[in-house]
Structure to design on (137 residues):
């Protein structure tokens, strides 16, 4: 189901909790909502649609990748400054990101995965994972 985008910064700044199999319905809502916003959105965290759970959906290689309980386990030393925007916030803001990251996560079927991401995809994943800690750009 397509959900409204949360813009309440007090809600967005709350920490998220690990997701479990009972949270699978959130994955469907995230996929429906990001698809409805595909013209201007490449990543979405569960709290952006009202769920404080550690689930994100990110556009990777032209397809939506679901990451449940993702954790960045390696970061490159190379960092860069960029400007980012978020559907939950008005305007763009500066952010510092690692060029490359390695992430361990569960896929939408709750199977463990480990994958390296570079450049823009790494940036988007870092942005979405920041949502879990209530970090807003």
């Amino acid at each position: 189901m397509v959900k409204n985008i949360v813009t309440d910064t007090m809600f967005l700044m709350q920490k998220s909790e690990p997701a479990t199999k009972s949270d699978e319905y959130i994955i469907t809502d995230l996929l429906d909502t990001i698809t409805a916003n595909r013209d201007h959105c490449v990543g979405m965290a569960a709290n952006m649609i009202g769920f404080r759970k550690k689930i994100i959906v990110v556009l990777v290689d032209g397809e939506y990748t679901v990451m449940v309980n993702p954790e960045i386990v390696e970061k490159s030393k190379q960092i860069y400054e960029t400007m980012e925007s978020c559907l939950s916030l008005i305007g763009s803001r500066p952010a510092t990101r690692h060029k490359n990251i390695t992430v361990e996560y569960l896929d939408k079927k709750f199977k463990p995965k480990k994958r390296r991401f570079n450049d823009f995809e790494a940036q988007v994943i870092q942005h979405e994972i920041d949502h879990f800690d209530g970090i807003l750009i």
